[in-house]
Design goal:
heterodimer; A: about 280 residues; mainly alpha; 2 domains; elongated; B: about 290 residues; alpha/beta; 3 domains; four-stranded antiparallel β-sheet; disordered C terminus; ABC_transporter-like_ATP-bd (chain B)
Chain lengths: ~280, ~290
């Protein structure tokens, strides 16, 4: 071997700082030169080498991000928040499949049914899906890790909000896609959005009082009862139901704001124990 | 020695059921066993101390922090590791992903440091080799170890373990005992169990609960001493005994007040436990 890599270049190589084409040249030379490999071993900082191996090992161990989590991280969401968002129990294939099925059927009913002048079935059903999704994402009866999560230092309300954002984001996104299938109705087809926010906020605000199952159930039943009453009082027949008129939308917005405020005031009730239920043996 | 946990007058009712009644206790570093029959209030006490449910009355501190305020509760939780009676898992997670998830909930937000900690605790419970395996494919004993690893994340000073050896076969139970013994070095561990062997092998101190109250507080040797001179053998079950059962040798082992001339036998921790439950050995030893 007529030449050797300089010690300076070998130090840069060991630190990972040698740039091409010197890097390529050193790579090729080191494979055939025991002398340079010996010098490289001497100039390599063992602490840095260990740290490098540890980093490599850690990366190999790290959970592989799913497409959604990867997308969130690339969009700037912190790694740990993205993990919490995508670990929301209800964001699983079975739930999302059910949501898509329900939306498809309601869109078809709206587009092909006798009441083709108004997408009533879709508008009535769409607000219930985010409500049910949020209800199913949190609580002692439905979250398998609830008991561990509730005693963790992360505030229970923060976790609830993270999961609510995840479910609302997904639910509203799917509802929005379904809305695109009803182009003939224009903006009227978006009349589900404010009721969806109002029902979800009301369901959460009532949870500390009624519990994580009864509260959204009561809100859902109340919504259906309201629609039936509005249908009975509808003038003229065939016109939009009251909740989907401009005035009704205003009421929905007011309920959403009021319930969100109430929810914020009650935030500490989600931090432990207020959703308690006796479990296991005493 | 300053206690890690100090509780006074803890009471909790579920409707008309009195789950905890004026519980007083002080826990110091080492493993403390919590014995008691079903319905004694063990799980409720553990859930209260773990801040999963608040007490109706009374107070307690963990490392000086009072969980009755939001800030105090968060501080308690920062020093807490909790293995519930029936730990739940996200079924699609690997062991690594699950412990990582719990680590995030424990505020370990730096990805690299968190993953290093997850690897450490999984190695500590002997699951380093299967860290990438889905939890649903792990045995019951391995799942319990995953849950223990999750409890150990962040190196908590106070570890609450609710019947961690239930459902494990003898070999797994032995392995788990080794892990608990190691976990108890330098930290305070409260171990609820039905197994008096767990207490005999692991615990520096033992509490016996019944009816929501602490009936005994002392060392395992003191609990065993409660039965000294109160255990005897006979060829027939002694009707005067508080408890009696036929042993493998065919003779009866009786616990209670022995008749004159009884063939006294050496007392065990279980004998002392039975007498405390029966009210005969009740009292606070220490």
């Amino acid at each position: 071997m007529s030449w050797h890599v300089t010690e300076e270049d070998l130090r840069a190589y060991a630190r990972g700082e040698l740039a091409p084409p010197g890097l390529w040249s050193a790579d090729a030379h080191l494979t055939g030169c025991a002398v340079c490999r010996g010098v490289l071993a001497e100039v390599t900082d063992p602490v840095a080498l260990d740290a490098g191996w540890e980093r490599l090992d850690a990366e190999l161990d790290a959970p592989r991000r799913g497409w959604c989590e990867g997308l969130l991280v690339r969009a700037g969401v912190p790694d740990h928040i993205a993990r919490l968002l995508t670990a929301t129990p209800v964001l699983r294939g079975s739930w999302l499949g059910a949501v898509v099925l329900v939306l498809t059927m309601s869109v078809l009913a709206g587009a092909l049914g006798d009441h083709a002048a108004s997408p009533t079935v879709f508008l009535a059903l769409a607000p219930l899906l985010p409500l049910a999704g949020v209800a199913l994402s949190y609580g002692p009866a439905l979250d398998p890790t609830y008991e561990m999560a509730v005693v963790a230092p992360t505030h229970g309300f923060k976790l609830l909000m993270i999961r609510t954002v995840a479910v609302l984001g997904t639910g509203i996104g799917l509802n929005g896609l379904a809305t695109l299938a009803l182009p003939g109705y224009g903006l009227r087809a978006l009349a589900w959005l404010l009721p969806a926010l109002a029902l979800t906020a009301a369901g959460l605000a009532l949870t500390p009082r009624l519990g994580p199952v009864a509260a959204p159930s009561a809100v859902g039943v109340g919504w259906v009862a309201l629609l039936l009453a509005a249908d009975a009082a509808r003038e003229p027949a065939g016109g939009p139901l009251a909740p989907f008129t401009a005035a009704g939308q205003g009421v929905s917005a007011a309920v959403a704001v009021f319930a969100t405020g109430l929810l914020f005031l009650l935030r500490d009730r989600f931090d432990s124990a207020s959703l308690r239920r006796p479990q296991g043996s005493l | 020695m300053n206690p890690t946990v100090s509780a006074s007058g803890l009471s909790l009712h579920y409707g008309r059921t009195r789950a905890l009644d004026e519980v007083e206790l002080r826990l110091t570093p080492g493993v403390t066993g919590l014995l008691g029959p079903n319905g004694a209030g063990k799980t409720t006490l553990l859930r209260v101390l773990a801040t999963a449910v608040p007490a109706d009355r009374g107070s307690f501190t963990v490392l000086g922090h009072d969980p009755r305020t939001a800030r105090g509760r968060q501080e308690v939780r920062r020093h807490l590791g909790y293995l519930p009676q029936t730990p739940g898992f996200h079924p699609g997670f690997t062991a690594f992903e699950f412990v990582d998830y719990v680590a995030i909930l424990k505020e370990l937000t730096d990805r690299r440091a968190r993953h290093r900690e997850v690897r450490r605790v999984l190695e500590e419970v002997g699951l380093g080799e299967v860290r990438g395996r889905r939890i649903r494919k792990l045995s019951g004993g391995m799942r319990q170890r995953v849950a223990l690893a999750a409890a150990l994340v962040g190196d908590p000073g106070f570890l609450v373990l609710d019947e961690p050896t239930v459902g494990l076969d003898p070999e797994q139970r032995m392995r788990f005992r080794e892990l608990i013994a190691r976990a108890g070095e330098g930290r305070t561990v409260l171990l609820s169990t039905h197994q008096t062997e767990d207490v005999a092998m692991l615990c520096r101190r033992v509490l016996v609960m019944a009816g929501g109250t602490v009936r005994f507080d002392g060392t395992p040797a003191e609990l065993t001493a409660r039965a000294a001179g109160r255990v005897w053998s006979s060829t027939e079950r002694d009707p005067g005994a508080k408890a009696g059962w036929r042993t493998g040798t065919g003779t009866f082992r009786n616990v209670g007040d022995p008749p004159a001339g009884a063939d006294l036998a050496e007392a065990t921790l279980e004998d002392g436990y039975l007498l405390v439950l029966d009210g005969m050995g009740a009292g606070v030893a220490a």
